[in-house]
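Re: your question from the hallway

Yes, I did run it. Sequences:
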Amino acid sequence: MRGPEQDAFAALGAVVDPELDEPITDLGFVRSLVVDEGSVTVHLRLPTAFCAPNFAYLMASDAKDVLTDLPWTRAVTVELDDHHDSEMINRGLAADAGYRGTFGDEADSDLDDLRRTFRRKAHTAAVERVLTGMLRADPELAETELHRIAIADLPDDNTTRALLRRREALGLDTDGQLPVLVDERGSPYPPDQAPLRLRLARSTRISIDGNAHFCRGLLRTRYPDEPLDLKETTA
Amino acid sequence: MYRKDGESYFIIDAHVALWDARPENQRNIHGKQFIDCFYDYHRNLSPDSELWPYEEFLYQGGERLMRDLFDDGYVDHAIFQPALLGDFYENGFGQTEQAFALTRQHPDKLTYNHCWDPRFGEVGLKQLREDAKRFDLKGTKLYTAEWRGESRGWKLDDPWSYRYLEVCQELGIRNIHIHKGPTIRPLDKDAFDVADVDKVATDFPDLNFVIEHCGLPRLEDFCWIATQEPNVHAGLAVAIPFMHTRPRYFAEIIGELLYWLDEDRVQFSSDYALWTPRWLIERFVDFQIPEDMTEYAPLTTAQKKKILGLNAAAMYDIPVPAELRLPESRTAEVA
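Structure:
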């Protein structure tokens, strides 16, 4: 990849699959990226033709937004390939029609609730990862004590940093004295609910991890002859 | 029946299909996209030895189905769960007449469940009554992401769906199998949301709701609903082949299901012809939760027997030979 393409690819790293909570660049959803002076053309691909169209639209329109925001881009084209709604979504993206303009009658208002739902789940899963890590590291620690764990008690590692990012995405503070086991509004659960909340959070984490792995696998199966990681290709 | 290490297992494959996805039956590009998506599932999750060529995957026919399930596959009884997909396939995806003819030839081996769609309104209700009589329906298969004209899906708690469920209740069609697929109007919300299952399970306590592929990709929401609704069950279609590609993930799935539900509400299914039952049954009987995953209890032989057949047998009143049942004391002990 040349400089401008690297720049554009890095920008696409900010676009996250809301359901899988991972950047589309890591998931292999960026199929091709071509820069010609100020114009950028990106093709996206998904693991199946029947991936939910609202998620597909969110990622494609977010991709267009981050590329348009780069200071040097003048014309940005984002197209979604091989999806049952490719035509509709690509037409909407080209016209900057927005979500409602793209889907017409099928759209009610906006996708804010959808984004919020998956930010909440991403946070829940991140809480489970840090707390399960604490339980594994300290056999003396009981699940019934988990409500006492504060952010400052967490190890300085990627799992903790991921949790802090999820808190910020929800608009929650990250002060050290704040409890870890909280809902999406930052409210702690009653202490006696800690083990139940951990179990619930675990099922959320399993769901997200499992889906992400399956989607990656399906993408490889669907596009066996194309590179999974665009970064490794040369322009 | 399957035998291993001195134990015998009565096998019910609770979700099979006799489909026709050959090009001549495809109505449009979506018919091809749909079967290609299935084929990618098949290729992605199958062991190399079980991979089928694309041509074979498009259509199997009755003879092949009987061989794969009953001659090679250890299955004692299988239940057809057809999807219509009339907007994608000229003569539908599931082959009603062929499957029903096979069921009549082998009533001891096959049960035919039919599908309905509330968007057909009164006409569909009348049809449901006729179908119930003709097929002697004990169950039905619903695919909520089915396209129909401008509409690309429906919800179980739609008013018309309630009317259909009321008729199911009246006619004794007690087992409602639900395949939650994506695409639901409006697109504003999560297309895989399973909240509508919660509502109908509460409002129809006499019906059983079997959620295929145990709510995946929303395992967590499904488990939470099933915890509160005793008439919600998990079908293992699509989940069980993860035993091969990702045994630890499958351990988590089955561990969560047994934790949130109980061992009486989980059913085996191969989802034939996505996968064949033989290797799934062999591996499930051998399967165990990895020792380091201490958050889950090990699977017991009794649990495996229930999941592989006894649970679905109880739901469908399928007779189980005495020697294949669980001893009463053991049932009481694990209950």
